[in-house]
Structures are given as C-alpha cells and as structure tokens.
Design goal:
Blueprint lengths: L8 H19 L42 H13 L6 E6 L8 H9 L6 E6 L8 H8 L9 E3 L5 H6 L3 H15 L9 H18 L1 H22 L6 H21 L3 E3 L5 H9 L6 E3 L7 H18 L10 H9 L9 H12 L3 H26 L4 H35 L9 E2 L2 E2 L5 H5 L7 H10 L8 H10 L8 H55 L2 H7 L4 H28 L6
Parallel strand pairs: 1-2, 2-3
Antiparallel strand pairs: 4-5, 6-7
Length: 589
C-alpha cells in the first residue's frame, strides 16, 4: 500500500517486484494461474477515484505449468467478474490484430449484448497500418459499443526494460495521434480514457443510485443492530459483573415463573445513557417468546412424570394368591375378620412401587432446570465465555446439592406413608362402613351401575364419601357376611376379595397424595431455593478482585465482530456520502 502523495515511479517499481513475488508464491514460477486476487491500493492526488480489476488475458494454448483446459478456466474467471450488472467492461484488443477476431469483445458481447456497459480499448495503435480500415476501427464505426472505442499506446518491451517514465509515454502517445489521426486525436489516448472512465463511472452510479442507497441502508441497519446487540466494552468491570449476574438470576427466575420478559442489562454506563436518550428502558425489553419458558417445561414434567406415570402404575399389581397370604398369617386359629398385619404388610409392598417413579420425577425436574441455566447463561453472557462457564458450573453445583435434598425429602415422605397405615382415613373407612365407591356391586341392585372405565378413572384420583344409603350399606355388608352353611373356602374367597378392594383403595389414596406433593416439593427445594439464594451465592463466589478482570473479559470472537462491524459502518458512511455527492452532481474525487 502507498500512502497519499507517496506514489512515484520508484515506488511503483519497488511494489511491482512484490506483486511478481506474490504471484509466484500463489501460482508458481511457470505461468500458473489462480482465482485468488491480489489487492493493491494506490493513494495519490494525481490519480482518479477508480476501482480496476485487471483480469488475465484470454488464451487458447497452455504453456508452462498451465493446465490443458487453461482457456476454459480463464474464460470462466473473466466471466464471473464481467457478468455482474454493476460492472463496466473494458474489452481490450490489440491494434495489430483484426478486431473481428477479438476474444475480449466476443465475451463482452455474450454478457452485455446491448453494449450499454462495454467500452472497447485498442492497444498498440502505433503498430496498426494507417488506412481507411484502421481509421474506421478507431472512429468506432466498425464495432457497436455504446460507451465508445478508445485507442491507446502503452510501453513496449524495450521501454519497459529501460523503465521509461509514464509521463514520457503519454507525450509520445499524444504526438502520435496528433500526427496520424488528427481528426479524432482529442478522443484518443490514456488521459482521455481515464476521463471517460470517471464520467462513465459517475453515470453508472447515478443509474444505480436507488439500488445502492437501499443496499447501503440495509447494511447500515444490519451492522447497527450487531453493534447494539454486542454493546460497547464495559468501562467498569466491577459494575459489569454485578449487572451480568443480576441479569442472569432475574432472567432465570422469570423463565421459571413463565414471564416472557428477557432482561437486557448493558454492562457499560455509556450504552445505558444512549438508550435512555433514545427513550428505551435499559433494564428490560419485552419480547415475543421464541421458545417455551422453563416454567412451562417444568409443568410438562409434572404432568408427564407425576400425573401420567404415577397414575398408570396398576393398583392391583402383585396382588395375587391373597388367600394363601391371609391363611399363612392366621395360624391354627382362623381370624374372625381380615388380619391387620396382612393388610399392613401387603400395602407397604404396594407403596414401594412409588419409590423409583418419584425419584425419576425429581431427576427430570432437575434436568429441566439445568437446561434453563445453560440456555439463559448463553444468552445473557454471550460476550463473556469465561464468566458464563463459571456461572453455569456454580449454579449447577448448587442445583445438584438441592436435588439431593429434594430426593431425600421425597424418600422420607414415602417412609412416613409406610410408617403409619391410617385405616381411619376419612376416604378409606368411617367406623364400620366400607366406602361405597369401592363396591359398585351393592348399588348395582338399585340400577345405578357405572361403566368399568369410568369407575377405574374415578378411583384413581377422587374418592366418594361413604354412602349414607342404609339399605345399600346393609346389602354391601351382607355381601361379605358368611352364612351358617358357608365353607372355609367360601370364607377365604370372600376375605381375599375384600382385601384386594381395600388394598387398591388405600393405594389410590396415597398415590393421589404423592401426585399432589411432588410438584410442591420440587418448587420448594429446587425452584424457590434457586431463585432465593443463587444470586448471593454467585456474588460471593465470583465477585472478588482476583476474578473480576479475568471473568469480565470479552471473547476474541466478539471483539473481532465489533471491530469488523465498526469498520464496515465507517465504510458505509463514506459510501453514503459518496452516493449523496453523486446525486447532487459533485465530484467523486
């Protein structure tokens, strides 16, 4: 790169060697090619503001290290640039070759059939034969290009070897056209070509102004939004740390409660002041939720793991061969009624089936909250990966600690249920009356049968009050009353049937309690504890002088992204100014 006012012949020659060296590094030393461009910027008060793309000349025969399909590769490379509607094509042809055979004009005509963005340039005009045909070519009557045809004379091989200055070649060029083509000399030469290109560029830009303005505006809005999301570098790491931790815990609490407001707290005072001036509230912005909140996810866990999975555990599972069990506990002397020990032993075994599903519900709830921690930390601390990892690790460690406490509490609750089998539970038995809802058979005589599916569903969650219909109760008790002629087998069958009914009913009572208790326990020991204590735990663990500077350090990716967008905003501002100047007819130099 050259700086302004530093462009000189010696500078060009020095840079020319670097261009050759760079070309050889990419393409080899034996005429190889590459589609990787070399960008060269020239700064000077003596050159116009133009962007030129020097494409390789079209060729037909491979030489050196060039591949066999070199002609097609070069043509594809050239076509990829000149096919763009916003490009201006300089179709360069040698003056000592019949212009009808010009590959450059042929290719330009394919992508620009109207010739509205093609300008023909004839080189080596000093080698052309001076006749009517050559005059017609330079006058542009033999070639139909809307932007005109201009002849130029460049340095030949001898002049290149002797490093003849450009200024000297321009004088030779001007004298040649004045001597040989005086009628069109004012429309020939490198200086006229330069002037025409500037005029063409301005005219082309004016035609594209609406499209360019729209593109510039869209790009500015895009990069402005990126810079807004990223924010500025925090001026006070201590304040940034407090704000980030507060943002995280507040967002986590709101997500668990299902409030769709995502807190956006900028850790730089300057950004907050800017937002306040623009009428924004720097603390929080309401958004339409893009995903389900953690509270909604947790509710799904309660529904699936508690209501559904606990409720599908069959109440009569393992209740087989009850006659043998009852008989074994009776000994030599049969009991007058069902032994309490048998009932207690069997119901405790039935309640053991709740252990694994209950613990699984706690695990699923823990996983749901842990995923919420990951998600919210990633959103609120995207600029600070080290702080994000530290916050997630501490939060999950505390959550795991609370999970263990929750599991122990649920385990203790189940042990409490097993420790005392309350046969006086109002939903189980009232004095000597058996709940009528368990035995629809007695009421079937009164013509009030319900479908089996309806009975099963009702017994799973709700329990009817003991029947006050004395006639029905008498029939019900009579159903299990043995006559004088009853055999021992009849007694065993009746006892086993009644035992099964009572076990199922008590099992359903405990299940209903558990379905109601597990969500409450999770909310108490996981959600509420996390919301109440996590903020102070994070501050105590992370807000120390030796950690703040390290943790409140932006990632290299964010830094590069901000730098790139800031640089692009400057370029777009310059482009916007340029377009505005063109629109009002000012010079683009």
């Amino acid at each position: 790169y050259w700086k302004e006012n530093k462009l000189a012949s010696s500078g060009i020659n020095a840079e020319y060697g670097e261009i050759i060296a760079d070309t050889e590094r990419k393409c080899g030393v034996n005429k190889g090619i590459s589609d990787d461009p070399i960008h060269l910027k020239l700064y000077s008060t003596r050159i116009p503001s133009l962007t030129l793309v020097d494409l390789p000349g079209l060729t037909k025969i491979p030489v050196g290290d060039q591949p066999r399909d070199i002609d097609q590769k070069i043509e594809n490379l050239v076509r990829s640039y000149i096919k763009k509607d916003n490009s201006i094509i300089l179709a360069v042809s040698a003056g000592n070759v019949d212009i009808a055979n010009s590959d450059a004009l042929r290719l330009a005509n394919q992508v620009d059939p109207s010739g509205s963005r093609t300008i023909a340039v004839i080189t080596k005009c000093d080698l052309m034969e001076k006749n009517e045909e050559s005059t017609a070519v330079l006058e542009g009557t033999s070639v139909d290009v809307k932007l005109g045809l201009i002849g130029v004379i460049n340095r030949n091989n001898k002049q290149l070897a002797e490093k003849t200055p450009i200024e000297k070649i321009l004088e030779i060029e001007e004298d040649y056209f004045l001597d040989h083509y005086p009628g069109i000399a004012d429309r020939m030469g490198t200086e006229y070509l330069t002037s025409q290109l500037c005029d063409i560029l301005i005219g082309h830009l004016k035609r594209c102004l609406p499209m360019l303005s729209d593109k510039i505006a869209k790009q500015q809005a895009f990069h402005r939004e990126i810079l807004k999301d990223i924010g500025e570098e925090p001026s006070d790491p201590n304040q940034a740390m407090i704000m980030l931790l507060s943002q995280f815990t507040d967002s986590l609490g709101k997500s668990m409660e299902g409030r769709y407001t995502y807190t956006v707290m900028r850790p730089d005072a300057q950004a907050s002041k800017k937002s306040a001036k623009q009428g924004e509230t720097p603390s929080e912005v309401s958004l339409i939720p893009e995903e389900t909140s953690a509270g909604a996810e947790l509710f799904e866990v309660f529904q699936k793991e508690c209501n559904e999975k606990l409720s599908v555990i069959p109440a009569d599972k393992n209740l087989h061969d009850l006659k043998k069990t009852i008989r074994s506990t009776s000994g030599v002397q049969p009991a007058l009624f069902i032994p309490d020990g048998v009932f207690n032993t069997l119901i405790i075994k039935q309640l053991d089936m709740f252990d694994l599903p209950s613990q699984h519900a706690i695990t699923k709830s823990h996983t749901c909250i842990a995923e919420a921690i990951d998600s919210i930390a990633a959103k609120s601390m995207v600029r600070y990966p080290k702080l994000e990892r530290a916050v997630v690790n501490i939060s999950k460690a505390y959550l795991a600690q609370q999970k263990k406490i929750t599991e122990e509490f649920v385990e203790e609750y189940l042990e409490v249920e097993k420790a005392f089998i309350n046969t006086n539970h109002p939903d189980f038995v009232e004095r000597y009356q058996v709940a009528a809802a368990l035995f629809a058979e007695a009421e079937a005589d009164e013509g009030q049968n319900k479908p089996p599916a309806q009975q099963s569903k009702a017994s799973m969650y709700t329990y009817a009050e003991p029947s006050t219909n004395k006639n029905a109760l008498e029939k019900l008790m009579a159903k299990y009353k043995l006559g004088e002629t009853a055999t021992n087998e009849d007694r065993a069958n009746k006892e086993a049937e009644l035992m099964e009914k009572l076990l199922i009913h008590y099992f359903c009572i405990v299940r209903a309690h558990l379905v109601d208790m597990i969500p409450k326990i999770v909310m108490k020991f996981l959600v509420r504890k996390l919301s109440t204590h996590l903020s102070s735990i994070l501050i105590k663990s992370l807000y120390t002088e030796d950690k703040i500077a390290e943790l409140v350090q932006e990632s290299d990716k964010i830094t590069r992204k901000r730098k790139a967008s800031s640089k692009m905003m400057k370029v777009l501002l310059e482009a916007e100014t340029l377009v505005s100047n063109i629109a009002v007819g000012r010079s683009i130099e």
